[in-house]
Write a structure and sequence with these properties.
By secondary structure, the protein is an alpha+beta fold. It has 2 domains: 261 residues, no CATH class; 122 residues, Conserved hypothetical protein from pyrococcus furiosus pfu- 392566-001, domain 2 (2-Layer Sandwich), CATH 3.30.1760. The chain is 30% helix and 24% strand. The chain contains 13 helices and 21 strands. The strands form 5 sheets. Strands 1, 4, 5, 6, 8, 9, 10, 11 and 12 form a 9-stranded mixed β-sheet that branches. The protein has a 6-stranded antiparallel β-sheet with strand order 15-17-16-19-14-18, sandwiched between helices. Strand 9 and strand 10 form a beta hairpin. The radius of gyration is 23 Å and the shape is globular. The protein starts with a strand and ends with a strand.
Length: 415
């Protein structure tokens, strides 16, 4: 069962939400955040990217930078830019991209569920990134940003959300920069809140879609706090962390593509010949070619696009990891031919989310920065859930969810 609870959200007043809301901390660098926050003291970047309040080049991991985050968090509340709800609530957060809207429920998820693997992950995390977010959560005593969960869709929950969104949204705006619509409703009816909690209790597991490091950090800080509290009862707010939960049938994973700096001392002809051992290679010309099904790849090399289709027998349909296109391409192209053994550490490879379009691959190859690009057909939600359910871990840089959650719409305090 999935344990969730409502919470007293800390939120911007309706007329300030567009000034406060920001992109997540990990989708832009310090200088980009500095530029976006310029002239706007209410921007959440002052809390989630507090290095922007220091000289350019300041290390974001310095203690004074973390301290600045909490100083700014307190200031935002004193100034009335963030205000805490008086009672515990759930919230509906919807996002619109390319004419399609997906509706999530903002809840507090259980630290116990994460520690017991009832909240399931599909990626490995790095300890240094976990520790960075743990410090941020500790010093603010809050989950400033939510994590992005999926759950097996449930008609009764869909019906509740449908009723809630008939009312006027608390927030409704198109974000500058991404152009996506962000819509937010408050659920404060006690019976509706109780019903949502009850329905989630009938869901076997929740799945981390995006935000593995934030999820780990939030759960680890919660676990830390209860071990440090001699009077721990299990009811404290730190036993929970903030998540936006979307039904799996509303989510789409988009492609996550690869760029490589060189051909491992091969000529174009030698590289294509080696590819032909395990793939059907077909020249497509200069017009962008997009993979059209599983096990079909698009290769961009020397101004030309090629279709690569994996030959029968080189993958096992019964192996949830081996059947993934990221595994096939990593093993048979990046490793075997190009000599890239570790996707996390090799400096010869870079990754581009499909939201940037395949034209970005052309641009970076044509500029000479990269030598070859490989576009993949996106992983499905079913594949993600199957892998998480079997306790497996996807290879690095497999999933890209879009749109990203907007930070600053609501915050969860751990007290």
């Amino acid at each position: 069962m999935a344990i969730i609870k409502p919470f007293k959200g800390i939120r911007p007043p309706q007329n300030l939400v567009e000034k406060v809301a920001s992109r997540p901390y990990d989708v832009l660098n310090s200088e980009e955040a500095r530029t976006e926050a310029e002239g706007n003291p209410m921007s959440l970047y002052h809390i989630i990217k507090p290095e922007i309040d220091f000289e350019p080049g300041t290390d974001e991991h310095l203690e004074k930078v973390y301290a600045k985050a909490v100083e700014n968090f307190i200031k935002f509340q004193k100034e009335g830019w963030l205000v805490k709800d008086e009672t515990e609530k759930y919230y509906v957060y919807a996002q619109t991209m390319n004419g399609k809207t997906q509706y999530g429920l903002v809840v507090c998820a259980s630290v116990d569920d994460y520690m017991n693997a009832n909240i399931k992950k599909h990626e490995l995390t790095r300890r240094d990134k976990e520790e960075d977010r743990m410090k941020h959560i500790r010093i603010n005593n809050a989950n400033i940003e939510p994590v992005f969960f999926a759950y097996p869709h449930k008609d009764e929950l869909d019906a509740i959300v449908s009723e809630v969104i008939k009312g006027n949204p608390e927030y409704d705006f198109i974000a500058q920069g991404d152009g996506f619509g962000h819509h937010f409703w408050v659920i404060d009816d006690a019976k509706t809140i109780a019903k949502i909690t009850e329905l989630f209790a009938g869901i076997p597991s929740l799945y981390i879609a995006d935000g593995h490091h934030r999820s780990a950090a939030a759960a680890l800080v919660g676990d830390e706090k209860r071990r440090q509290n001699p009077n721990h009862s299990g009811n404290e707010e730190y036993n929970y962390f903030m998540a936006v939960c979307f039904p799996d049938n509303q989510l789409n994973i988009i492609d996550y593509n690869r760029l490589v700096k060189d051909l491992n001392n091969l000529t174009d002809e030698e590289f294509l010949t080696k590819l032909s051992v395990n793939f059907e290679v077909e020249l497509k010309g200069t017009k962008i070619y997009k993979p059209n099904k599983l096990h079909n790849f698009a290769l961009y090399l020397s101004g030309k696009w090629y279709s690569l289709t994996a030959k029968a027998g080189i993958y096992n349909d019964n192996d949830p990891i081996g059947v993934l296109d990221v595994t096939i391409s990593s093993n048979l192209i990046l490793n075997k031919i190009l000599g890239i053994k570790d996707l996390r550490s090799d400096k010869r490879i870079d990754f581009v989310g499909g939201i940037r379009g395949l034209g970005e691959l052309c641009r970076r190859v044509d500029s000479g920065e990269m030598r070859v690009a490989l576009a993949l057909f996106p992983v499905s939600m079913k594949q993600l859930i199957d892998i998480a359910d079997t306790g497996n871990i996807m290879p690095p840089k497999t999933t890209w969810f879009e749109p990203k959650l907007r930070s600053g719409l609501v915050i969860h305090e751990l007290v």
